[in-house]
Each structure stands twice: as C-alpha cells, then as structure tokens.
Amino acid sequence: MEDKIFDCIVLGGGPAGLSAAMYAARGNVDTAIIDTSSLGGQPVNYLEIENYLGFKSIEGFELAEKFEDHINKFDIQKFTNEEIQKVDLVSEIKSVTTLKNTYKAKTVIIATGASSCKLGIKGEKEYLGKGVSYCAVCDGAFYRDKTVVVIGGGNAAVEEGAYLTKFAKKVYIMHRRNELRADKIVQKRAFGNDKIEFIFDCVPIEIIGDNKRVSKIQYKNLKTDEILELNTDGVFPYIGFCPNIEFFNGQLIQDERGFIMTDENMRTSRFGVFAAGDVRKTPLRQVITAVSDGAIAGVNAVKYLEEIKEAQKQGAMSI
Ligand code: NAP
To answer: Do 46 and 107 have their domain in common?
Structure first.
C-alpha cells in the first residue's frame, strides 16, 4: 500500500464522505475512503430523521445502511476502523498514516465530521460511561425509571431529551438561556411531555458521584448566581458539535472554533484538499447539506485531477 497513490482519498465515511466518494468514483477516479470506525457517520446514532428529502421519517441507522449499500455499487476501496496517526495535507502527494498503513493520494476530501462538544467541567471525563453519555440512543435504556439531566437547548438536546422519557421517569433539560434554540415543532412536543422539566438560565458546574456512578449535578443560575444541586442518575450533554480535526489541525485555514474554511466549490486553503459536511464552516449541519457538500467536493476533486493531468502533459507539474 505504501507505494500506491490513489487519485482521491476521502477521509471520513459519513454522509458527506460517502457522497463525495460516489461522485469521485463516478468521475472515474481511483478513490478510497478511510474511517476511524465503520461507515455511516453520525446518522447511525440518530433515532429518527424527518428532514431528509424523500423520506418522511427514517431511522438514522437505516439511512446510513442505504448510503453504504449505494456506495457498494462502485469500485471504492474502504479502509474502516483505522486508527489515524498522522495526516499530511501539505506535501504535493498527501498522505494518511494509520496504525496499519500509509495511504497516499493526489487529492484529499476531508469529511471527518464533528463530535459532541464537551462541557469541560469536573466529573465529565471521570464519569464517562458511568452516568455521563453523549448518546441517548445508545445508552437510554440504562436509565429505565431513573432521573437524567440533558444539557443544551438545541434540537439535539430537546429531541434526545424527549427520547429519554421512553425510559427515564424524569428528564430535566438544563439550558443556559430562557429561550430554546430547538425548532418550534420540537419545542412544542417537549413542552407537552409531562416527564420533561426545563431548567432555564442555568449552567452545569460539576458532575458529582461516588466514583462509581453519577449521583448529582451542581449548577449555577446565571440570573441569580445561586449554586444549586440536583440528584440525577445520568447527564447527557448536547451542546453542539465540534469539528474532528485532531490529525490535521493547523494545516488548513480554519475558523475560531476549528471548522475548515472552504469556498463554494468545497476547496480549502490548500490545492488538492477539499472539505465537506460538518467539519467545514457552514451555516447548516444536516444530513442533507452534508450529502450536498460531498457531491460538490467530489465533482471538484475530479476537476482538479483533470487539471493537474493537463498541466502534467504540458510539463508544468510533477504529479
Ligand atoms: P446547537 O443547535 O448548536 O445547540 C447547542 C445548544 O447547546 C444551544 O442551545 C447552546 O446554547 C447550548 N450550549 C452551547 N455551548 C454550551 C455550554 N458550554 N454550556 C451550556 N450550553 C451550551 O447543537 P445541536 O442541538 O447539537 O444541533 C446541531 C445541529 O444538528 C443543528 O443544526 C441541529 O438542527 C441539527 N440536529 C438536527 C436534528 C434533527 O433534525 N432531527 C437532531 C439533532 C440535531 P445557546 O442556544 O445559548 O447557544
């Protein structure tokens, strides 16, 4: 594998990456997808998706399966569950080094997505898997007849909070303002759910337990500065997503939160490097926009490869 140079490596196998790979492969480009886990990306953890055109309602896992099934139609090499060590986007030939191999390519499409942002408070790391969870769908069933606190006021917090009422006897949703960010339709459903209680104008300060399990959360009322405590069995932070940029941070122009800056063609600040989906600075992070970004990135990667081939013919470039 060390000597092989792909035309295009797509880093990340979520909706953006799979769409990018499909468009690249349809452009007759030798394409590989590399992912740190299995293919599918974030939708795998979404309970239900109601805003992907063509599907009034579909389980995230099912949509991810359909994406993968579609991709399997093409001759795309897939390297999954790869532990990435290093990514070089600066050299003319880009490379991705994992524990198993070094993969090289003329062009790279970054579609590594974003992961749950961390609260950064005491107890969050310590109680991960012992009462702290970022995935209601994965862990909700452990909270049957228990009390949980969801942090955040966006769609994820309110929807996942509502999902948790299937199991928990009580779900508190703690939000730092007194107005939710979630869509009105999502809010309406939550306000009508009598297992949900909102705690507005408050932020968590510390997650407390007996070293084995979470038992309470300490929080602050931002209006009164009061420090309060609430007994809980679980804490689910849903405060948005942070870009997955660990292995190439600083090699591209990024915004203040680390999201990759691109132009409308998904070109980054480096020739031959494109970005698509949640990892890039974009006004909307949805499956539908990720898929669209991927298509644009894939098409433009093909164009770029044609341009360098042409330039090569004329002896202008060495690739
Ligand atoms: P989001 O919309 O960015 O909301 C994050 C929430 O967390 C906001 O209410 C924010 O408060 C709060 N927050 C941020 N940092 C905080 C901190 N340090 N401490 C306490 N609270 C903090 O993120 P999201 O809900 O994860 O959604 C992300 C994207 O995915 C959105 O575009 C959303 O529509 C989409 N999504 C869609 C679906 C769906 O369509 N089914 C489901 C889930 C997510 P402020 O409001 O004060 O900023």
So the answer is: yes
Looking at 30, 35, 139, 293, which residue is catalytic? 139
Residue 50 lies in a domain: yes
Q: Which residues of 94-183 form beta strands (DSSP E)?
A: 94-98, 102-110, 114-116, 147-151, 170-174
Residue 88 belongs to some domain of the structure: yes
Tell me how far the alpha carbon of residue 86 lies from the centroid of ligand 1, in angstroms.
30
The CATH number of the domain where 51 resides is what? Answer: 3.50.50.60
Provide the 10 A C-beta neighbour count for residue 61.
Answer: 16
Distance from Cα 152 to the centre of ligand 1, integer Å: 6
Query: Domain count of the chain?
Result: 2
Domain end position, chosen among 194, 209, 237: 237
> Given the CA of residue 284, which atom of ligand 1 is nearest to it?
32
Clarify whether 255 is annotated catalytic. no
Domain that holds residue 292: 5-116+241-314
Q: Whose CA is nearest to atom 34 of ligand 1?
A: 155
Q: Does any domain span residue 261?
A: yes
**249 and 106: one domain?**
yes
Tell me what the mean pLDDT of segment 246-252 comes to. 93
Counting from 1 in the atom list of ligand 1, the atom nearest the Cα of 238 is: 26
147-171 tens-digit pLDDT: 999 999 999 999 999 999 999 999 9
- 188, 257: one domain: no
Residue ranges lining ligand 1, Cβ < 6 Å: 51, 119, 151-157, 159, 175-177, 181, 203, 238-241, 285
Give DSSP secondary structure letters for 182-248: S-HHHHHHHHT-TTEEEE-SEEEEEEEESSSSEEEEEEEETTT--EEEEE-SEEEE---EEE--TTT
pTM summary value: 0.77
The domain boundary, picked from 195, 217, 237, lies at 237
Strand partners, 10: 33, 109
What are the tens digits of pLDDT across the range 100-147? 999 999 999 999 999 999 999 999 999 999 999 998 988 999 999 999
